[in-house]
Design goal:
Elements (H helix, E strand, L loop, with lengths): L1 H35 L2 H31 L4 H33 L9 H22 L3 H9 L1 H21 L4 H33 L5
Length: 213
């Protein structure tokens, strides 16, 4: 019986890795679509978001099966409940990548904008998402705590991006509307970072039994 349970836990880990990879891909596609004003890539982001929704349902079903058909011990219960919380955050990451894609579809191209900080912010939040899932699969408390500690880095980049955009609007008032849309995008990225932190905190709970307030 335990060997069957362990096989299902392995399946859970594989599906979480797949969901995390889809989230990372959605973020990457959304930002490439934004910076290149590529509506085809924006549409690709929306398709990935649908895949994320589908795998969320599959993982939720597997977790419920583990709870109802097996006899998990306390540590298993923590792990499964953490997984259920994590997929909610990952689904929201997909939603926010889709929100960025929608901005691309309805926004004009911005000329002359230096995208260095928003690219750096994208790379930072993508890494946080990937490593938070890796921490769960590997029961790596140190990695989870490292993700949590990097939230301040993303917050600082959020401020830098907005400062860049305020300067850009001052110098290019004709593009103010598009710049404000880009500010909203930076907010979505900041929220994605928050969701990665949430995931890491649930990893911490699955290992220690303690959840941060």
């Amino acid at each position: 019986m335990r060997s069957k349970f362990d096989r299902q836990l392995d399946k859970l880990n594989r599906e979480l890795i797949e969901m995390g990879a889809l989230c990372e891909n959605a973020i990457d596609c959304a930002i490439r679509a934004l910076l290149n004003h590529d509506k085809e890539t924006a549409d690709e982001t929306l398709s990935i978001e649908e895949e994320i929704n589908q795998i969320e349902k599959a993982i939720e079903g597997l977790c419920l099966k583990l709870l109802l058909q097996q006899q998990p011990v306390a540590s298993d219960l923590r792990l499964i409940s953490a997984a259920l919380k994590m997929i909610t955050d990952m689904e929201r990451i997909g939603d926010q990548a889709a929100d960025i894609a929608e901005i691309v579809i309805h926004t004009e191209l911005m000329d002359g904008y230096n995208s260095a900080h928003i690219k750096k912010m994208t790379k930072a939040v993508s890494k946080m998402v990937t490593e938070s899932v890796d921490a769960f699969v590997g029961s790596n408390l140190e990695l989870a705590q490292d993700v949590i500690n990097r939230d301040d880095e993303v917050d600082d980049l959020f401020i830098e991006v907005n400062n860049d955009l305020i300067k850009y609007i001052t110098e290019n008032p004709q593009n103010a509307s598009a710049a404000l849309d880009l500010m909203m995008t930076s907010k979505y990225l900041e929220r994605i970072g928050d969701h990665a932190v949430n995931i890491a905190e649930w990893v911490e709970f699955s290992i220690t039994g303690v959840h941060r307030e």
